[in-house]
Design a protein that fits this description.
Elements lengths: L2 H11 L1 E5 L4 H4 L5 H4 L4 H5 L11 H12 L3 E7 L25 H11 L3 E7 L6 H4 L5 H20 L6 E5 L10 H7 L2 H11 L4 E2 L9 E2 L12 E7 L18 H13 L3 E6 L9 H17 L28 E4 L2 E6 L7 E3 L6 E6 L8 E4 L4 E4 L12 E7 L18
Parallel strand pairs: 1-2, 1-8, 2-3, 3-4, 4-5, 6-7, 7-8
Antiparallel strand pairs: 9-10, 10-15, 11-14, 12-15, 13-14
Helix pairs in contact: 5-6, 5-12, 8-10, 11-12
The chain binds ligand H79.
Ligand H79 binds next to loops.
């Protein structure tokens, strides 16, 4: 199977839901609490017996992902704290041996698959309970034990749960931030590890955080396009917020912002992985649900502009994730069709510039209604007229623009030319 074939569904999906859930969820101060408060491992481990998610809570996660219009999910099977949401021969620090005594990964995989969602697993390479992670030279046996655990657990995850569609490593940096490139890959024996993964799961998509290149890059809290490979931009709903449940989060992004990120990721030919952090009992808080649900409602009507879309070079926003001062919104594309996702409704007339390809037809995606337009091939300006004065959709309105060819951006060799046009 070629890279393109393996990546096909992922490229069509464009939108996934990330779930961060673990012992840190009980504390409500984010997933880094053990380390940022330097809580000793034995003390932290006491939380495990209080880990008691409500029965069936994974259904809430899956229903949330469906309501959002997402096509896949990724669950933290084990974060940096080391607590596993799955059964493991390599550790007793799991949800199967403590608290609820349930295999949450199993519940999640089953529920997501049943809902028709692709299944992703997150796995942190580092585990804060191992001195050998922080000081590998001082505690070589602990470092070895950590690697034994990693290889054993990744094998378990890749063997015991049927087909896994995505594997997202995290925590691949060393504690002193010294290892780069090959050194980083060698620290985790990444080549060997990923060879094992691919033997067990031949169609899987793997991110690059174990140090080897693999299939995708996964930047955090920004929307970026791929330099070398496909990009999945990962983000929290809270601004400057943790990924795990944060009880008091002062800065919620709006649904408009989330949708702008999604469209921008699609314009750049990448995916958007939006995170939810379930409450201590595993339920989804309303602040998160209402925001992603609004995105999902929009996608029900305008999904054609997002799912299975391709990157587009037309100018709709100069900065990823932003709707600029002077531009109405990003463009996505399918073949010769451009989807102009307008967040700042301009009123009756919408003007796009630097369009090099002739335009054949303009309709509103949501209604199918056709609008008159002019396109000037000399200055590359598209002017759509007769539009409603008021935006019909409060999130974003999509103009579906049919071109004669793949829409291209017009060069501006003389930046001043337009002044006296
Ligand atoms: O799971 C979520 C985060 O907990 C995790 N990745 C997402 C998906 C993540 N962990 N760390 N980071 C993201 C950012 C890394 C920050 C670091 Fe550092 C800078 C690690 C090492 C240098 C701050 C300073 C933390 C330790 C030292």
């Amino acid at each position: 199977m070629t890279y393109e074939e393996r990546m096909k569904w992922f490229n069509e999906a464009r939108f996934g839901i990330y779930v961060h859930y673990g012992l840190y969820s009980l504390l409500g101060r984010g997933e880094w609490t053990m380390y940022s408060e330097r809580i000793p491992a034995a003390e932290y481990a006491k939380l495990a017996d209080q880990f008691n998610p409500a029965p069936g809570c994974v259904k809430e996660w899956v229903e949330t992902a469906k309501a959002a219009g997402a096509k896949y999910m990724v669950l933290t099977t084990r974060h940096h704290e080391g607590f596993c949401l799955f059964d493991s021969k390599y550790s007793d620090f799991t949800s199967v041996k403590h608290g609820c005594k349930r295999d949450i990964v199993r519940e999640y995989v089953d529920a997501a698959r049943e809902a028709g969602l692709k299944v992703g697993l997150y796995y942190s390479l580092l585990d804060w309970r191992f001195p050998g992670y922080f000081e590998p030279e001082k505690y070589p046996e602990s470092k070895e034990a950590l690697l034994t655990q990693i290889f054993g657990q990744v094998r378990e995850l890749m063997t015991n749960y049927g087909q896994i569609d995505v594997l997202e490593y995290d925590g691949g940096w060393d504690a002193r931030l010294q290892n780069k490139g090959v050194d980083k890959a060698n620290f985790w024996r990444a080549q060997e590890l990923n060879a094992m993964v691919r033997e067990l799961q031949p169609t899987i998509i793997i991110n690059d955080r174990s140090g080897t290149e693999e299939d995708i890059e996964t930047p955090e809290q920004v929307v970026r396009g791929g330099k070398q490979k496909m990009t999945e931009s990962c983000m929290c709903i809270g601004e400057s917020c943790a990924w795990g449940y944060t009880r008091f989060n002062p800065n919620w992004k709006t649904s408009e912002q989330l949708l702008q990120h999604l469209v921008q990721a699609a314009q750049l030919g990448g995916n958007y992985l939006l995170n939810i952090g379930p409450c201590p009992d595993g339920s989804i808080r309303i602040e998160e649900y209402e925001r992603v649900q609004a995105v999902g409602s929009w996608l029900k009507i305008n999904g054609e502009a997002i799912y299975n879309s391709q990157s587009c070079e037309l100018i709709g926003a100069t900065q990823p994730g932003l709707v600029d001062l002077n531009l109405q919104g990003p463009w996505t594309r399918k073949g010769n069709i451009g989807y102009w996702c307008i967040f700042r409704w301009p009123g009756e007339t919408a003007t796009a510039v630097r369009i090099a390809t002739p335009v054949k037809k303009v309709t509103m995606l949501a209604t199918g209604k056709e609008y008159p337009f002019t396109w000037d091939k000399n200055n590359g300006k598209l002017t759509v007229t007769g539009l409603p004065k008021m935006p019909q959709d409060l999130l974003a309105n999509v103009l579906k623009v049919e071109f004669e060819d793949v829409p291209r951006r017009k060069e501006e060799p003389d930046l001043a030319e337009w002044i006296n046009y």
